[in-house]
Each structure stands twice: as C-alpha cells, then as structure tokens.
Amino acid sequence: MAAGYGELLRTPHAARLLIGTLLGRLPNATAALAVLLFARAEGGSYALAGGLSAVYGAANAVGQPLLGRAVDRLGQPRVMLPAAVASALGMVLFAVVGLEPLPVAYAAMLIAGLFTPPLEGGLRALWPSVLRREDQVHAAYALDAVAQEVMFAVGPLLVTLTVALWSEAAALLVINVIGVAGALSVVVSRPSRQWRSAPREAHWLGALRSPGLLVLLGSFFFIGLALGAIAVAAVAYADEHGGGAVSSALLSALGVGALAGGIVYGGRTWPGAPERRLRLLVAALALGYLPLMLVPGVVTMTVLAGVAGVFLAPALACAFVVVDRHAPSGTVTEAFSWLVTTFVVGNAAGTAVAGPAVQLGGVAPGFAVPAAGGVAALAVLLAAQRFLLDGPRPVVQPTAYRTPGEPGAENDRNHAAEPGFRARHQA
C-alpha cells in the first residue's frame, strides 16, 4: 500500500501539484475560523462574525462553478492565479479596514469568497494527464480525499498559532499569502500550463446538463448536510459530557476514521463500475451514522464517531471518479467545482437544521439529522440509479503528455473502445 502511494508521489509533478493545491486551499479551509477570530478581536459580536462568514460562504458557492467553467474555457493559469490574488486582496482589505465601515467589510468578504480559485477541481482535472495508469488516478483521488482531512485538521492549528504569535490580522494575511504561493506553484507547473479542456458544446447549463452528475450532486448535498449536522450535535453532546474537549475528540475521531478509510481504499484496485461501488460506500456511510443516535458514554461515542468516518474519504474518492465519467465534454473542472459547492451548501444546511433539532429535542435528535442525511443520500442514488449507470461516456484511457494532434484525447461516444477517464488534455 505504502509502495503504491510512494510510486504515485514520485511521478513527476504529482507531489508538487498535491502540496501546492493544499496550500492554495488553506485560505478557504480556514476562512470561517480566521474571520471569526478577527471579527471578535475587533469588537464584533458572534452574530456579526457569522454574517461575514455566511457572505463569504455564499459567494464561494457561487464563484466555484463559475470560475471552474472559466478554467475549462481559458485554461488554469489565466484564471487560477488572478482569482487567488483577487481573493487574497479581499482578505487583506478586511484585515486593514476591520469592521468599520461595515459595508466595506461585507464587500471584502464577497470578493474573497467569490474569487476563491477552484484549485480542488483543477487538481482532479489534472490527475489523469499526470499519472501513468488508471489505478494510480484512483489512488490519487483517494489520497486527495485523505489530504483534505489533514488540511482541515492542520489549517485551524496554523491559524491559532499565528494568532498566538502575532495577531488575528496577521493570521488573515499569512494564510492568504500561503494560499497565493500555493496557487502560483500549481499554475506555473508544466501540467497546469499545458492542460487544455476538451472541446465543449455551447450550453448555458454547462456541466449541469448531465443527468448522472445531477444525481451525484443531489446525493452529496445530503452527505454534506450530515457532516454539518454532526459538528453541531457533537458540541451539544459535549455540553452534557464534559465540555469542549469532548466535541474535539469526537470530530477528531471522525477525521481519523476518514484518514484510515481513505488510505486503505486508495491502496488497492477495486473491480466493477464505480457507480455501483459508490452506492455501497454511501450505504456503509449511512449505516455508520445511525448508531450515533444512541448517544452512549464518551469512550463508546468516540469509537462510534471513528467508525462513522471510515467510509467518508472512500465515498469522496469514488465520487471524484464518477464525476469525471459523467461530466459533459469540456466541463470537467466546472463539474468538480459543482461537487465542492454542493457539499459546502449541504454542510451549511446541516448546521442550520441540527441547531433547532438540538434546541427542541436534545442531543439524540441532533444526531438523527446526520443519520437522516446519510439515508437520504443513499435514497437519491437508488432512486435515480439508471441515470448513473447509463450515463458515462466511453473514452480511451489517458496517458501522460501528448503533443498537439496526437490521438487519445477525449473521444466522442461512438468511437471509443472502453470506459475511462475524461479529465485529460492535449498539450
């Protein structure tokens, strides 16, 4: 298993692209915490900090698919780097101006969220052109999902450390400087510079005209909802079982479970269609959420949280493969960006639903929300499975770099021999 990941990371450009993307995404991963700490340091209320974060999140949800579509049309460097700089400047404006005048603070959040570069979708579009074999692409998607867990664990620690050493404003500036540096590292790389999307049909719906992709987005909205609800329910559980350290333990266990599951999943090749495998993974994920409603003692609850996280990273990794298979020609970055947006919106919805559930019924109803979200995610896949199973467009397998005009780019439906990946390029 370790040898397989080692071979993947030794492939030219692979480690650089993965690390650069993770660094480039740090501002987005830490925005909620960094904005909250800065707003509180400036004398703002929690409600104001929440409003600023909400503006950032809403703008981010709008901007990701729009910028993803621009990347598919114009290439990565012409979109990613200017967007990263614009987003960072929005945060710099916020750090300099503070909360007064308030409209400027909200405008800064709007700019920072709207122009967050779609590095996540861009990396997944690059993998098939960088790696040599399809099994390596599968492993890269799993490693990508695992790296997200690491980033969301390390990012907040970096913010709090910067605040302790300097200030809340310095944390905003440092995180965004790192983000621009990460984006720059990606876009000046050879794979990013040479990547070109396949020809696309002019259509206002873009990637959303794929029925299979819509099914996947519907399912992962509910998975995002489940994760958002778990965060709220974990805090409510901690209030009754010893305080904030307990909620941290539960969420850490969830992350450790996801790490372990992602590493194991990406360490081997899985037979069969990924669409069918995704149903099984989501079913296992939903099943893992159900015991949380029992709200046992802290030790047992921590173990259950770890088990509940095991299938998260594998489900994400498998979803990346399914997105790649169902995205219409020339829309792969946009399609991946829609997955990010849907997941984030679902997460916010889960937070909004779990709060009243805890308020009205207590901790158990709070954990019933993620359980319901997992069941709903599976129900979407089962109810609309024909769109997933009938939808993938067959193409030839990707290889490493090709010169202009060389065969092997995205084929049309009637000429390719077997299913494969379509997120590739012509150099």
UniProtKB/TrEMBL annotation:
Any one Gene Ontology molecular-function term assigned to this protein's record: transmembrane transporter activity
Keywords: Membrane, Transmembrane, Transmembrane helix
A UniProt-annotated Pfam family: MFS_1
Membrane topology annotation: Multi-pass membrane protein
Subcellular location: Cell membrane
Record field: transmembrane: 17-39, 45-67, 169-192, 213-238, 244-266, 278-295, 301-323, 335-358, 364-384
Residue numbers spanned by region Disordered: 398-427
Record GO cellular component, one term: plasma membrane
Domain Major facilitator superfamily (MFS) profile residue range list: 212-427
SUPFAM superfamilies the record matches: MFS general substrate transporter
Annotated InterPro entries: MFS, MFS_dom, MFS_trans_sf
Protein name stated in the entry: Major facilitator superfamily (MFS) profile domain-containing protein
UniProt source species: Streptomyces malaysiensis
